[in-house]
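User: Hi! Is it possible to get a structure for several chains at once, not just one? Here's what I have:
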Amino acid sequence: MLRNREIRIVLVLVAIISTAGAAACFYVSVAAGIIASIVLFVVIMVFILFTRWRYRQIHMLSGYLARIAGGEYSLDVRDNQEGELSILKNEIYKVTVTLSEQASLLKKDKQFLANALSDISHQLKTPITSMSVMAELLENENLPQDKRVAFVRNIRSQLERLQWLVSSLLKLSRIDAGTIEFKKERINLRELVNRAVEPFLIPMELKGQTLEIIGDDDVSLTGDMNWTAEALANIVKNCMEHTPPGGRITITFSETSLYTNITISDNGDGIHKQDLPNIFKRFYKGKNAHKDSIGIGLAMSKSIIESQNGTIDVASERGKGTAFTVKFYKGVV
Amino acid sequence: MEILRVENLSKIYGKGETAVKALDNVSFTVQKGEFIAVVGPSGSGKSTLLHILGGVDRPTSGKVFIENTDIYSLDETRLAIFRRRQIGLIYQFYNLIPVLNVKENIMLPLLLDGRQPDKAQLDELVATLGLTDRLGYLPNQLSGGQQQRVSIGRAIISNPALMLADEPTGNLDSKNSSEIIGLLRLLNQKRKQTLIVITHDERIALQADRIIAIEDGRITRDEVIRS
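Assistant: Yes, the chains can be modeled jointly so their relative placement is included. Here is the combined structure:
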């Protein structure tokens, strides 16, 4: 206890004041001096005892923290009493819970990474194998010209797919690592939606699908135009692919005092009930997934949206259609 | 990580022939970060269960462990302090204190502990709740949706281990309901806030990770929808 500088200062001050006080009392009368000395002595002893008790509590807490640092997360120091010390114990406990939570999350992350790596290498291996087979066949000088053209076209399309896969994976990993700085600009929703649907206007026309965009012109949100447009585009793409020719895709947006809401819905096949909780998981392929689907688009949308204080939910009914609801909140919790 | 464990919980109101069994030997556990909807017809014992979990009403028998603390082994004073620090409650009719303004109502659990909130954190929370320009208002100057947002703020400010809500949208129109549901979901996702919500509202039930159905004081169904 005496190692604490503030205690030494207090003790010296208390000693000076009490000596002076006692001396003053002795000056008035000897009896008063004796009484004052005894009272002061007892008060000082009580003070020292309580201070020691308090320091012992702090000492206990630091021992507790040392054990937590050693990974012993199950300790509980809370005593549910009034007062600062008890609040401190309570706060330490909450930090401990957070720490242990993060430790287990980290473990899960590692497992996830291992799985992701094996998924990725699988995704890369298939096209590479087929391309090397075709390259070998191309080496044959007697190969007819039309086959040759077909193989080259095939290789080119596989390469495009690989390129897309690699660049998507790179984006995804950058979002996950938090190395992307999302801009915080005022975005007009109509502009954003127009940007997101632009690449699909022609394919949708070819499929005879109608696109409907409903919302007020003054609706806006704060976020990154390019990334948010990409997130929405992935969802629109998904809707387009799972809606039969002649179908309809509707995008509505609105703003409340809490969030900006974007709903993208279609009247397509709908999603199987078992797939619903998983469609935002990386590399997850649903029952009626597109044959070229890798299961990365919606996962990327989710990452982008959640990195910008948003949430994404999906509701779907088989045969009736699917609706994705995206909400961007105005405050960060 | 286990946040809540309920063991053989029973609650009987009244005695002898007029005794009513509100809860009959209910047991389950909840992991940190789960979003649970408790559904069931009125009079099935849902609210009784929530009150017992919240430390407001003592069970006739059985135990409730929150973060490994047997809450009914604590005396009244300690239970009150435990509740203040570890449990956030949201009611259908808000239960805000009418003479305190919005800011004071939100800060109440901290004020009871003699603490001041971190200014930046409070501002952020208030902005998320959409109440920035309402801080000085009294509850009766607010709409139902706004009052419920205040009570969400009050429930979350102390970073509780467990947040309990009893029909949080029961008194709100559809627009306000979806705002409240959105906020609950956001807290659950961003803060990994454990949430148990009693509800008739199908939209809340669809947002939950797990649905527990109660009938005549017993759990009739306990189903994980997503993990």
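The CA atoms of residues 14 and 59 of chain B lie 13 Å apart. Strands of chain B lie at 2-13, 20-31, 35-39, 61-66, 69-70, 87-90, 162-166, 195-198, 210-215, 218-224.

User: Great, thank you!
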